[in-house]
């Protein structure tokens, strides 16, 4: 029995760095599971679109697909767009059985990659001492999703025994610059920012710029195509594949 195809779905961006990150992550997933067919798609602002990818798979006779959204939080808008795209594809290709998995995060296993990226940033900045951390994420109008990021930030801070604040690029306060300034107002001077973004783009650029302007000593790169992220994609896929099995 052929395993369902995994479609790794990025939100989409006109930024070329985001497209490269998607290609690199898909390549890492394929290296981890060479027996599995893995395709890339974007929800908006790029190609291949989810509609085009699903149409091509249906034309090839593929019967089952699990779509894994490459999101670290679950904003309402993206969820609605994904549900609409899957509904349209289901009507166009009635023989194609589809399942969308849960999003990737916030997930404690991501902290391993976050620490690795932050260590690289601290080494580049020649910083050896920290007295506070900021966890920067995209942010969403969904208060529960933002609270999940804040819980992950607290877990991160507990692990490092440092005070920590969550900050958001859009839709919710505080911004990264505000979070850094708040710590500096407490007399803390060695404040680093960990980036809970899976790929580069304008939101990460802006969060980094605001943090550095406010006095952060280092800002980490996005998580990128790390094996831990590939394993998380596959874990979400596995749950979706089980849900496709008829009861």
Automatic annotation (TrEMBL):
The keyword Lyase applies. The keyword Metal-binding applies. SUPFAM superfamilies: Chelatase. The lineage of its organism: Bacteria, Bacillati, Actinomycetota, Actinomycetes, Propionibacteriales. InterPro entries: CbiX-like, Sirohydro_Cobaltochel/CbiX. Keywords: Lyase, Metal-binding. Pfam families: CbiX. This is Sirohydrochlorin chelatase.
């Amino acid at each position: 029995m052929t395993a369902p195809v995994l479609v790794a779905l990025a939100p989409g961006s006109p930024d070329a760095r985001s497209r490269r990150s998607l290609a690199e992550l898909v390549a890492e997933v394929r290296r981890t599971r060479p027996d599995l067919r893995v395709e890339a798609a974007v929800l908006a602002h790029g190609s291949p679109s989810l509609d085009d990818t699903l149409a091509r798979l249906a034309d090839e006779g593929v019967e089952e697909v699990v779509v894994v959204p490459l999101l670290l939080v679950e904003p309402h808008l993206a969820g609605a767009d994904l549900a609409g795209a899957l509904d349209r594809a289901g009507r166009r290709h009635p023989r194609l059985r589809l399942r969308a998995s849960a999003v990737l995060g916030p997930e404690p296993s991501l902290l391993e990659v976050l620490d690795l990226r932050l260590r690289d940033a601290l080494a580049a900045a020649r910083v050896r001492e920290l007295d506070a951390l900021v966890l920067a994420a995209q942010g969403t109008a969904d208060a529960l999703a933002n609270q999940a990021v804040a819980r992950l930030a607290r877990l991160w801070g507990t692990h490092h025994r440092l005070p920590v604040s969550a900050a958001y690029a859009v839709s919710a306060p505080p911004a990264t610059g505000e979070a850094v300034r708040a710590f500096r107002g407490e007399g803390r001077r060695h404040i680093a920012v960990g980036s809970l973004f899976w790929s580069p783009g304008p939101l990460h650029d802006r969060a980094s710029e605001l943090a550095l302007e406010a006095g952060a000593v280092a800002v980490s790169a996005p998580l990128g195509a790390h094996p831990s992220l590939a394993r998380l994609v596959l874990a979400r896929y596995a749950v979706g594949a089980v849900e496709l099995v008829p009861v």
